[in-house]
Amino acid sequence: MFFRLLSLIPGTSAWRRARLRTVMRGYRVLMNTSRLGAISDIKNALTESPLAACKGRFSTTMLGAAAKSAELALRQYLLIQRGGVNLNRALLRAAVTPQKAIAYPMPEDWRQIVRLHGFGVSEWRCKLLWAAYVFGMWGYGAARTVRILAEGVRYGRLRDADGSCCAWFLDLSPANFPQERAGRGSHDIISWYAQWPGRNASISSVRHGVLGVAPLQVAGLEVSPQRGPVPALCGARELLAFAQWSLFAIMLSAIDALRGRWWHAVMLSHAAVAAQARHVPAGALAKAYMFHNSGWIYRPLWTYEVECKGSDVVMYFYSTNSEPFKLASGYPPMYYGYRAMNWPRYLVWDDYQADFVRRATNDSVRLDVVGPIWFQGKDCDICREIGFSVAIFDVTPHRASRYAGLGFDTEFYTPPTVNSFLTEICEVIQRHNVSMLWKRKRNIGRVAHPHYRHLAERLGQFSSVTVVDADVSALKVISACTVTISLPFTSTALLARQMGKPSVYYDPTGKVQPDDRAAHGIPVLSGPAALDDWLQAQLQGQGPAGM
Question: Would residue 155 count as lying in a domain?
Fold first, then answer.
């Protein structure tokens, strides 16, 4: 009884465990009733349905250059703020019993969509939670305008007046920077950009927001940290103009929120940064702003301002695993968010990915096919294997509780699939007496499913298996091996093909369609017999290269 009472107190570990169990029960309910696709359907509808309540009611003075795309920008922002994993979990909890209604902070347009897809909605609780969210966002936005003014007073006098020869990289981590040792190259995004022939020739420096990384030189580019992509306001004129805008924006958004026109309050914090960019001279802005595809959905409001002042705003794809698997009945809808993209320019790996971006946006979108884009990779010594060797690349499956919250409508990256992928490959490789280098996709600790972790420990004991740190560059692993086998549809298969190495996808389930466009032309093998034949052909040097 005591623990049951604890589970009712928000924030306690018992409360969190109880909610997690409810999420997993909801997942099983949807799976057993063949409604697992309901979450994807809802989120695709949220992606593509305009917010009717606010259409045409945005203030140009407040939003500036973004005003023409304001509804889309707001929809993008809500998708990342309110349409992610937390919404999935709320829907799963509501799915436990038919009478249970969802209580989640979302606008009226979204509540209608949720109802249309068969979920009950607690109208008064949703309204109350949504009002609290709007009020919180307004308070955060007001505080942010004050902080921008304070930073202008404190840092504005230190501003570098010339940003025209600079490229600014957003949302990087320490692993995204060069780690050269003894002349060996590094396969990170900065090194890739330095050697990319398509970059603006006038750019001589790179800036980023990882303040703990020391300045360095990469192929003639000066790489250094900076406090933010938008320079601080400088001088009385800029500060006064921004202060006047701030007073207007704070008052307008507050009055509108009280009238039920919530959109300005929700976007106030981002409109403040956009206003900061609007009041900064063009010469202080970077020549190019580089965003990676982990944040594909939301294009910040300030990017509209810098684009108007001549800066290049670019979304680059460091990965190609962006599409759901083709079904026997045909291709399912895209993952949520992609059809809301409106970046001015895209960098993609190949024509398959270019086609994907055009399908998500439109045929006239500006994009460049640039080949594989490096992103991050720890430097280490990987000796070239003597004789024939195989590089293996999988996807780490999450714990069941974590996986359920992701809301996928198909079960593929799960322990049964990934463990079968590894064990079947290992058996074939041992039968042919060749060595195997196995690189896991990433280190996620105890978030990884325990069945997968136990298998990893067991495989690591075989003398023919070398386990490579997940942070090591995939290019280094591929270069050390003869052929590569990847779990569909990881980008490593395309890296291997670009390096001239025989490369295939291996599907232990037999569910992946061999003509799936998400394979980018890489052959898909199903079953141990097909894998054995392919490997035997590679050993004999007479089979198809799989490239």
Answer: no
